[in-house]
Amino acid sequence: MAQNLHIFKNPLELATQFAGHLMNWIGNHTGNVFNLAISGGKTPDLLFSVLAEKYADSAPWQKIHFWWVDERMVAPDHPESNFGVARKLLFSQISIPEENIHRIKGENVPETEALSYSAQIRESLISRNGWPAFNLILLGMGDDGHTASIFPNQMELLQSERICEVATHPSTGQKRITLTGNVINNAGQVCFLVTGTNKANRLTEIFTRQETAKLLPASHILPRNGNLNWYMDKSAAQFINSESWRDLESHSD
Ligand code: 6PG
Q1: Site to substitute for ligand 1 among 38, 43, 232, most atoms within 8 A of C-beta
Q2: 154 confidence band (pLDDT: 50, 70, 90)
Q3: 27-84: per-residue pLDDT in tens?
Q4: Cβ count near 23 (within 10 Å)
Q5: Apex 99 CA angle, 96 and 105, nearest 5
Q6: H or E segment at 25?
Q7: What's the N-to-C CA distance of the chain in angstroms?
Q8: Per DSSP, which regions of the chain are E strands?
C-alpha cells in the first residue's frame, strides 16, 4: 500500500486540486465504469461545487457510478441527507444518467436498506479478496476520529463480515448506514479529505502513531491492495511536520 500526503493552503485549493487528480484517475481508468463511493458531511461540499463548475461539460459522467460511503437515515430532501446535498451541489448541475446514482434510501427501514444496499453493491461491483472492490472511496474524518459512520464506540464495524451495517451516531442517536471497514480497505484507492483546525489533534495522533490512535476508526483505514491518499489543508496539518510522516511521500501543494 502506498501512502501519500497532500497539503494545501486552504479548503478551496484542496478541493480544486483533488478534483483534478480525481478526473485524471477516472480518465486513466481503462474500464468503462468507475465506481466511486463518496462520504457526506461538510468537507465534500466544496468538491461537489468545483466538479460542477469546472467539469460539468468535460467529465465522462456516463462512466462514473456514484455510491455512498454512508447515509443518514432521513428522507432524501432532508437537509442532513448526504445524497440530498450531492444532488443539490453536483447532480443537479451535470448531465449524468440516473442509473449511475446509487443512493442509500434513507427513508427506508435501516436494517432492510442495509441488506438491500449490500446486495446492490455485491451485484454491481467486481469482487476482490472476497469483497466488492470500489475504484475509489472518498472519506472524511470527524474530530473524534470517526470515518464513514464508523464511530469510536462501534469499532466492530471495521471487521464486520457484512458489506453495509446500521450504525448509530453516538451523541444524536441518529441511525445511519455505513460501508464496513473490510469494504473500505478493499478499494483500489482511498482518499481522505480533511480540513480545519478541529481535526489537527486527531491527525497528529494518527500520524505520529500514538497508542491512542488505535481507538480511532480512521487509523484503521489501510487499503490492502490500494493506495491511501491524505488531502489536508494547512489548518488540519498544522502539527504535522514532514519528518514525522515515515514511509509517506509528502507533497505540499
Ligand atoms: C457523514 C460522513 C462523515 C464525515 C465526517 C467529517 O455522513 O457525516 O460520512 O464520516 O465524513 O463526519 O465530516 P465533515 O466533513 O463535516 O467534517
Answers
A1: 43
A2: very high
A3: 999 999 999 999 999 999 999 999 999 999 999 999 999 999 999 999 999 999 999 9
A4: 17
A5: 110
A6: helix 11-28
A7: 22
A8: 2-8, 34-38, 64-68, 70-72, 127-128, 131-132, 136-139, 164-168, 175-179, 189-194, 227-233, 249-252
The CATH number of the structural domain formed by 33-174+189-221 is 3.40.50.1360
Which residue has the CA at smallest separation from atom 10 of ligand 1?
A: 148
Q: Is the CB of 100 under 6 A from ligand 1?
A: no
Which ligand 1 atom is nearest residue 72's CA? 7
* Closest-lying ligand 1 atom to the alpha carbon of residue 71: 7
Question: Which atom of ligand 1 is nearest to 178's Cα?
Answer: 9
Q: Which pTM value belongs to this model? A: 0.96
Where do the domains of the chain lie?
33-174+189-221
Which residue has its alpha carbon closest to ligand 1 atom 8?
A: 41
- Cell reading at 249: 511521500
* pLDDT over 70 (residue 114): yes
Question: Ligand 1 in contact with 195 (CB < 6 A)?
Answer: no
Give residue-wise pLDDT tens across range 190-245: 999 999 999 999 999 999 989 999 999 999 999 998 799 999 999 999 998 766 55
What's the grid cell of residue 150? 464508523
Separation of CA 156 and ligand 1 centre (Å): 19
Is the CB of 217 within 6 Å of ligand 1?
no
CA distance 208 to 218: 14
